[in-house]
Amino acid sequence: MIRIYGLCKRYSTADGDIIALDNVSLHINQGDFAAIIGRSGSGKTTLLNMIAGLDVPDRGSIMFDGMDIAKLSAERTAILRRREIGVIYQFYNLIPELTVKENIFLPSELDGRETDPEKLTEILNTVGLGGRENAYPGTLSGGEQQRVAIARALFGGPSLILADEPTGNLDGENSAEVIGLLRSLNEKQGVTVLMVTHNEEIARGAGRLITIAHGKITGDIRNV
Ligand SMILES: Nc1ncnc2c1ncn2[C@@H]1O[C@H](COP(=O)(O)OP(=O)(O)O)[C@@H](O)[C@H]1O
Ligand SMILES: [Mg+2]
């Protein structure tokens, strides 16, 4: 589904150059439920952001559906994120002034697409937030906010979900719920999931475990 070849990224800082990604090649297969682990600063977010088209590599390609994401304009990658690639962050990135419903509809509205209220109901039920469409994010718990963020990612009908430490701000119980939800989307709806996590237990539970260190892939194990 995603074929990454020779991805390199260097950042110039006041303290000199930092090699964030060092010749990374990786295939993500349709149906994967994969976790990426690695120390802070190892390049996990950089890698995910490049797949999402939020950052551009110095070298290498990211083939998806016959396109190279690394070569698309910002406008095209924005469309890709509204339709094909759902992105979930540690701090939810919901808009506090908008209700749950408005947050979920926003990407489709920006895309000039119809927002179907029945689909909203269905997705809110899927994430366990039926009846909460008019709540504001600030009135929800962290776990609930993350489930709104997942609902927003799902509303566009993505084939791939990228999640950057989606449980990084949650307690054990809420983490388990969010991971359980991602897993069920993977198993029941066939959504491919690639998530960065610090949590070893979550990582061990993933179907595939990718390890990254100093910008290089150092391990890639499939759990059966
Ligand atoms: N915009 C940036 N400017 C300068 N350095 C950056 C930038 N983004 C990331 N880095 C550096 O690149 C390395 C990898 O960062 P990152 O991908 O965020 O790591 P991780 O998500 O694994 O913690 C780190 O050393 C980080 O400081
Ligand atoms: Mg990170």
Question: What are the SSEs and their pairings?
Answer:
Blueprint: E1 2-13, E2 16-28, E3 33-37, H1 44-51, E4 59-64, E5 67-68, H2 74-83, E6 85-88, H3 100-110, H4 117-126, H5 142-155, E7 160-164, H6 172-189, E8 192-196, H7 200-205, E9 208-213, E10 216-222
Parallel strand pairs: 3-8, 3-9, 6-7, 7-8
Antiparallel strand pairs: 1-2, 1-4, 4-5, 9-10
Helix pairs in contact: 3-5, 4-5, 5-6
The chain binds adenosine-5'-diphosphate and magnesium ion.
Adenosine-5'-diphosphate (ADP) binds next to strand 1, strand 2 and helix 1.
How would you describe this protein?
- With 224 residues, this protein is of the alpha/beta class.
- It is 34% helix and 29% strand.
- The chain has a single domain, classed as Rossmann fold, CATH 3.40.50.300.
- The protein is globular, with a radius of gyration of 17 Å.
- The protein has seven helices and ten strands.
- The strands form two sheets. It has a six-stranded mixed beta sheet, sandwiched between helices. A four-stranded antiparallel beta sheet has the order 2-1-4-5, covered by helices on one side.
- Helix 3 packs parallel to helix 5, helix 4 crosses helix 5 and helix 5 packs parallel to helix 6.
- It binds adenosine-5'-diphosphate and magnesium ion.
- The site of adenosine-5'-diphosphate (ADP) has 12 residues, from strand 1, strand 2 and helix 1.
- Magnesium ion (MG) binds next to helix 1.
